[in-house]
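Hi F.,

I've been meaning to write this up properly since the lab meeting, where we talked about keeping a consistent format for the predictions we share between groups. The idea is simple: the sequence comes first, exactly as it goes in, then the structure tokens exactly as they come out, then a line or two of notes. No screenshots and no reformatting. I'm using this chain as the first example so we have something concrete to point to.
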Amino acid sequence: MNVAIAMAISWIGTLLFVLIIARALLSWFPISHGGIFGTIFALISSITEPIISPIRRLIQRSPLGGGGMMIDFSPMIAIILIRFLTTFLSNLFMSM
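Output, unedited:
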């Protein structure tokens, strides 16, 4: 049972990793909201926004952040946190 939970955690972490990477890459291109790519981007954004938005707010409140930042580092920080939590929780359930 614990192995199944650990694998599910790993799968969800990998899925979130891929979605955040896809969101970051798609944000570099102009995408119309009416087409298929607009629909895909909206779906990916709706899944990843609850993860990225709190990190973005924390960065903006920090001394390093602010409204004038040209690069959004929140997806990179989200990926690092997801990888850390995925590894930690998977190992925790595997050791039980």
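Notes:
DSSP finds three helices and no strands in the chain.
The first helix runs from residue 2 to 26.

If this format works for you, I'll send the rest the same way.

G.
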